[in-house]
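User: Show me sequence and structure for the first protein, then do the same for the second.

Assistant: Starting with the first protein.
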Amino acid sequence: MNDSPSTGAPRWGYALLLRLHFYAGLLVGPFIFVAALSGALFAMTPQIENWLYQTELTTNTTGNPQPLADQITAARAHIGADATLAAVRPAPAEGQTTRVMFLVDGLQPFEHKAVFVDPVNLGIHGELVVYGMSGTLPFRIWIDYVHRHLHLGEPGRYYSELAASWLWLVALGGLALWWRRRSVVKNGQITRNSSLRNWHSRIGLVLLVAFLFFSVTGLTWSKWAGANIAELRTQLNWATPGLDTQLDAVSSEVSHSHGEHAGHEVAGPVPGSGDNASSYDAVLERARRAGIDASILEIRPGTTPERAWVVREIDRSWPTQVDMVAVDPRSMAVTDHVKFENFPLAAKLTRWGIDAHMGILFGLPNQLLVAACALGLCVLIVLGYRMWWLRRPARTAHTRPNPRRVFAELRKASPLALVTMAGIAVALGLFAPVMGVSLLVFLMVDAILSLTGSATKSAN
């Protein structure tokens, strides 16, 4: 079956693109499939998580909540003196529990042991491991680790970066191949392979924007490309503003939160460590007066006596509430205040993009859309493998495969085209090193196959 287009750019360009699309789909496809499937599961699990951990998350008591100091004391009595108090998330609404989070031995980075306290009667509803700013619970943590690094830790992050690095290129390559093939007529002949290819193309076209979105937002989390993206955002002044928590002799006495509430500070508790439970109520009250009004928030003590406490909003649904303030626990002065409304547009888009990627920006509609697009990507990959299986070359004593090879097509290109492609490949490799290394692997595989094919022909 002749798959080459009859018109358009040089045939070697089409053949080269087809071969690279094939290599990327065949070799990177499994990684993209795992990332897509785990991403779909992650997006659809908040409701499952709320059901699984209903005992820990909810309470039937009603009435006025007790001071945070008393809730923290109850959590401390439950978990013991060896754990280090790391943060507190007050109950966001009536009928929900407060999370008092501790650092304990044996946890992974960014994990805490959360003790769930009834804010009214101070009863303990259990303890669970929670992860990161999103506060995911064990069920979603397990899925998230599959999506992030296959439960392999830091080395496993290369898998997700490989998937995100190639997804956009494979998607755009598929679009280019479809564009070249759109006017080719197969004399009315419909085969299983052409039918599969039509479905493969249709799914890719419908979900193209989603694939590009997943790739770009996924790369912001990656190790190597993500670091380059962060550096680029910093150079362009697109970075997310940070909160200054450094305290000094001046900032411990006077607020410099851009003039807001200046001169109206009140005396606070005696300075202490993060285990000074009485500080949490005063710090929260001061943050509320400074404009932190979200129901979902976190209070985190300073890591050293020279660092301010941080109160941050963590409601990433729409409208996004992620304002944060730094509070000096000695004077109750707000020493810095970062508002989401003052973020650069690029930083806002990054925040919204990441949250939409996770399926939390617009609630259930966002979850369903992410899951549908991710599962569509899984179907597309399965169709691609099925096409490859149907078209695989038969190896018999009388027939030998004669597929197009990358190096064979490159020899047909002009010097200018070769230099241009080499420049693009080097630039992509420097910006996304995992992609660059994998591209070299593809070329090495192709070179070995080319040499093997040549040797076989010579022997015959």
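Switching to the second protein now.
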Amino acid sequence: MAFYGHVIKALIETKHALLPHEPNDPAAAQEEQLRDLLETAKDTAFGKYYNFAGILEAEDIRTAYGERVPLHDYQTMNEEWWKQQRHHPDITWPGRPEFFALSSGTTGKKSKRIPVTEEMLECTQRVGRGQAECLANFDLPAELFEKDILMLTSSADLDEKDGYKEGEISGINVSNMPEFMEGVYKPGLEIAQIADWDERVQRIAEEAPKWDVGALAGIPSWMVMMLRKVIEHNKLKNIHDIWPNLSVYTTGGVAFEPYREVFESLLARPIVIMDTYLASEGFFAFNARPDTMAMEIALDHGMYFEFVPHNERGFDATGTILDKPEVLDFRQVEEGTDYALIVSTPAGAWRYMIGDTIKFVDKAKMEIVITGRTKYFLNVVGSQLSEEKLNKAIQVLNKTAGSQVKEFAVGAVKRAEDGEYVHQWILGLEAGELDAERAKQIIDDHLKEVNKNYAVARQKALKDLRVKVVPADRLYAFLEQTKKKGGQIKFPKVMPEEKLTDLLAFLG
């Protein structure tokens, strides 16, 4: 009998019932988060420059904050402030950060360095505890609460720099694991510190029979590769043959739906799948209840959020933010509208645009979904295709054709024969076969049906679609050229013409 599991489950359910994790007044909670951030950082160089003390005395601190502090992208924040923060204390946050997170980025991009303070780590852990408490909403067996948790992260072997350490955010988080997690965390710090992805996965496959894994966490593309390695190495039919108590998978990093069929094919039975929004800049939202993949935004965990409409009120046609965009707080957002997310955090990020777009699907429950990136949408000829719509097209393709497209890339390229634009799709198959012409027809028909801008573009400037089908491993090999493989690395869905041409040349 799982005595401790029953105790832990009862404690979670009791706390969840008596002390609901969500704030009774989200708007008031957000004002409190902003006030705490400003108060803590008012004596830093950034706080003095933008007069945080004066903002705190304003009748409406949210309005005053928006008027006095400009929006920042990474380039501005890094060049003007964060570079100094690596060597000097009290620049954008009290003291010096112990860590800098290297953003996973995408092929061909130089990694960004995002400060990670002790307060930011505590903030991330508070959001994690909030999600753990929401397990009370799921009908999970008590035995699960005694099982191992396998987190597939980037390498925890952090690089020593001038008084700080740097690595990808998942590696930093694992290196700062709460004590209560140490007994159940797998694969353990020794394996997690192996820098080479293939070697690390091989070790996981070898050690897998020793563990009783009840929960998984990690980006779906690499999770699928790891599970297949465990299955192949141990000569299994499915992953439940070795981990029969596996009941929960916490996904994140990229949209899960394009990977659902491939992932579920590795299981013997359905498990609970929970989404998370964990970026280099913070842990922003998590799935809090069953029967949805929408995530509850963490409004009372130490961060302040603002939202810029991802339309003509906030951005131009190239995805560049306007000089004077409309900026909203939580009280003003509407369901169903795409917004660029702006964050202020205890890492010393101030009105910082991280580049993601989200939309509220249930404002009363504070639930959002990630819809893509501010610049990762396909609009060269007015097709207005967000990453969310592209992911949905692949989901429809897999369901209609019975295919297992695991990764994809798409971009607008000019035809050599006449200079007219076409959409070039590259589809990475996990297994099986897929006829390129049938895939083209399914994708084209679906996008015409759900997106009127795309339908109009197909009648005018967008002359055709081209589809190339390759094994997914070939796309990962392209990533490996730039030493970007495993962990938190995401394959770019939308590519500029030059990068797409490089990929096509690599694929031959």
